[in-house]
User: Fold MutT/nudix family protein from Haladaptatus paucihalophilus DX253.
Amino acid sequence: MTDRPVTEDKAYAYITRSGAQFRQLLVFEHANEDAGVQVPKGTIEDGEDPREAVVREVREESGLTEFDSIRPLSTDVWNHHEKPKAYRRHFFHLVANVERDEWRHTVTGSGEDNGVVYSYFWVPPGACSLARDMDDYIERILD
Assistant:
């Protein structure tokens, strides 16, 4: 429960590779070094459902467009650590058939990161701490 107003709904993507020998999570480093390691995520637009939003955000932030599966994991309300607001977060597990081990992608769309370059790579889930509590549901993709 939160005592802060929920100001936005956000969609978060835990993307794993199909066919990999062991489970790998797609993460990126933001051009802003203080932003930490993250997963694709973003604001759900008016009239958009969370599943549509997570697919759009992944496309805009990583360039990936095809997924073997998409399943919801959890929805919660998260208090921002530096600002007096809260987000409703919708987490999804997406499985993609991706052979590249790493790549750089220039963010598209109308968000504040439009034009920023993200550097993507794969890690074992839980191998690194994700920024802003993005790893709260990582254990749900381990089985």
In short: The domain at 6-141 is CATH 3.90.79.10 (Nucleoside Triphosphate Pyrophosphohydrolase).
